[in-house]
User: Fold this.
Amino acid sequence: MKRRVKRRRQQHWKHLYWIIPLLVADLYFFRWLIRRPDRGDPQIQIEEPAAPRPSPFEHIAFPTAQDRLLDPNAEGVFQPTASGNPISALYGSVRTVERGGSLTPSFHEGIDVASMQRDRRGHPLDEIYAVAAGRVAYVNRRAGNSNYGIYVVLAHDEPALGEVYTLYAHLARVESGLHAGQPVEAGQVLGIMGHTSSSPIPMQRAHLHLEIGVMLNQRFAIWHRANKLKPDHGNFHGRNLLGVDPLAVFAGSRREEGFTFRNHLGTIPPAFEVVVRASRRPDYFSRYPALWEGARREPEAITMAVSESGVPLRGRNATEEEASLLGRQKHAVLRVNEQVLGRNGSRLLARAGGRWKLASQGEQWLEVLAY
Assistant:
């Protein structure tokens, strides 16, 4: 009997071996629970939407060390043609050329910036800078296969629009290693000013020709080759890159906070409006969808507002009344702002029988656009 009682006592003590540590652990847990700080309700983190990317043209740089491009009274800033007329270095129908034995207005699609530095032999030493951040789209290192001579094209991603292009022409040389696809920063050196061209430019009139604009058709290279045209610069031929006034872009960037190229296009008055028979929207409005207004259904005809240089500023499906004006024609000019058209140096339009129509240059422009 005594042995049984002793055995039971030993069993009770064995249970205490694990009960006591458990009680100690509970004691510490409750002490921690009582003393811990009141954290309140958990904070819900609400992520704010990311701010829209700024336009690369919001803080645009000048393409050379010349910083007086916007000074209307500055002399020696721009390089005129052989005429010596200062306005011939600017954008627009500012030139006169001889065609068929008569003098006709000619359109200049950029600005010509004069040299500031030369070596002892008169060769320019001016560095050429990217005006905005972007990437190298094309480099032509052959001086004699383009009116642009040696030239570089940069592509700039405009968030509110699409890709905008800048072109730097008549260079003496391009920076070593510069190649298509390479990212560039605003102010990065692209090359050295020169006077290269398939049409001779005297060294004393060496300059930078700068253009800022859009691409008419991403299938241009296919159209160009199908028509067996030369030289072949792919999509970066001058016919496919349509420019706006660079000085207006520089001025807008410095004047307006939050400047965008998209908004700038909206300030350019159209020179004419044209209605065109079409079974689909042109590639142009697929790449620049912000310029298309209204319904996106496949049209029977479209109406476009166009700048003097041929930049489609906006497009939409034609109204029934506008489409009815076509009759059996493929296109018809609806309206012309003769004040904006000015001297009509781009020759996209011609007047016949008191009415405006697309000229041969205009029909080729439309052929490329619609290809």
Summary: Residues 122 and 204 are 7 Å apart (CA to CA). The chain is about 20% helix and 30% strand. The chain has a mean pLDDT of 91. The chain has two domains: 86-255, 268-370.
